[in-house]
Amino acid sequence: MSDKLTHINKNGEANMVDVGDKPIQKRTARATGFIKLKANTVSLISNNMMKKGDVLSVARIAGIQAAKQTHMLIPLCHALQLTKVDISFDIKEDGILVNSLSRCLGQTGVEMEALTAVNVALLTIYDMCKAVDKDMEMLDIRLVEKTKV
């Protein structure tokens, strides 16, 4: 692994990396994040009783849409043809663990798409629950795995 920043050119300016000479590979990335919630909020979500609607379904769609738009949000990201984006939730007593999977056939990785999906899914949960839970915290957002074959 190199210590050189790839998005900086020889003059120290921001630069989009040229991936044109890299081989097309099956690339996968997984990310995770947690939103800490009050027990009552977890119960409202679990029983689909939140006023704004089905929190997890909306968060899933928001995360998928966000992954597809990552190149529009992060200036130096390449537009990727995603072949799969999946968002899953693990409901805990004190919150919800959000997991994402992003996959493509391409010349650059999909970790930014996986991380964007998790962040937007968490933000959507936050938005849909803010009326009933003023103490929510988004924690431990991180890349779990990145592979290419």
Task: Explain what this protein looks like in three dimensions.
The structure is a single chain. With 149 residues, the chain is of the alpha+beta class. The chain is 30% helix and 32% strand. The protein contains four helices and four strands; from the N terminus they run βαααββαβ. It has helices spanning 39-46, 55-68, 70-73, 111-129; strands spanning 25-36, 82-92, 95-106, 137-148. Strands 2-3-1-4 form a four-stranded antiparallel sheet. α2 packs antiparallel against α4 (111-129). It is elongated and about 55 Å long. The model has no long low-confidence stretch (mean pLDDT 94).
Question: What is the topology?
Answer:
Layout: E1 25-36, H1 39-46, H2 55-68, H3 70-73, E2 82-92, E3 95-106, H4 111-129, E4 137-148
Antiparallel strand pairs: 1-3, 1-4, 2-3
Give the gist of this structure.
Pathway: Cofactor biosynthesis; molybdopterin biosynthesis. By secondary structure, the protein is an alpha+beta fold. Helix content is 30%, strand content 32%.
Features:
4 helices; elongated; four-stranded antiparallel β-sheet; 149 residues; alpha+beta
What's the gyration radius in Å? 17 Å
CA-CA gap between termini = 18 Å
Structure class: alpha+beta
The overall pLDDT average reads 94
Give the strand line-up of the largest sheet. 2-3-1-4
Count every beta strand, where a strand is a DSSP E run of 2 or more residues: 4
The string of secondary-structure elements, in order, is EHHHEEHE
Biggest β-sheet description: 4 strands, antiparallel
Number of helical regions: 4
Low-confidence parts, pLDDT < 50 over ≥5 residues?
A: none
Helix content: 25-40%
Apparent shape? elongated
Tell me the strand percentage band: 25-35%
